[in-house]
């Protein structure tokens, strides 16, 4: 509809609605229907957004005693955080209640995460209580919603500025535009996969992450980390280091992730060391949802890009303003005009 009317939409908001609906289906077996053409008010998603924003402000605060005082007094942003967190948990509890009331929630055919946890809870005589299940599923939604939408938002921006890359992706995805893409079809999309990796190198969904030493430890370079020490690493900065990525580190170049197969002449994806490219973390802490995230992103790209062209509505030379909460976003959203494609590749 937007394409036929040539209207302008906030692509970032569109993606957040899509990923929220999608992850709620996976996690709860529940469709919030936030992607309806009417774009209904997303109360559940908005509560998530507020919690993420306020929590991020905590981490970035130069005077943490201020938010701690607000928390004690239950005023301002801390009061808002408490209200939104309560809303999220109440909604989650209601979903669990509804799931339990359905006679078939504990069937082996249940596919959503919540049903599987409830099955596990029953089999282990309620070893996992309701609060624990709520924590797990909320974490799953938080991880799956914001990161994927952030990655795809910046991806669309970058390919709009690099038509040759867009053309190569279209060549690869033209024949895989069905809504039921299989894993094997997605697996054989090395150029698209490389383009997503390159986009996340420049704009990692989680731009900075922090770990805390649970006990005294020594880092690989010999640095001593005392128990309780917080250590941050910066994927956004690491993706822009000339010594690692070369003098052309500013360029959006998927080919840096690819090499030609000598026998077939086709592209072959070559992954980087995860400790050099920690977008999905590394080692024992590597993201459990990495493969699912790539599957989801590539299905979106292959299903949408061959049919539509996304043209950012910005002034000549204007760049999106980056803001970083727990995830990276475009300040004010990414406004685009959606156009139907007429050329097949």
Automatic annotation (TrEMBL):
Its cofactor is heme. Transmembrane segments: none annotated. The keyword Iron applies. Keywords: Iron, Metal-binding, Oxidoreductase. The keyword Zinc does not apply. Pfam families: p450. Gene3D superfamilies: Cytochrome P450. Belongs to the cytochrome P450 family. This is Cytochrome P450. It comes from Solanum tuberosum (Potato).
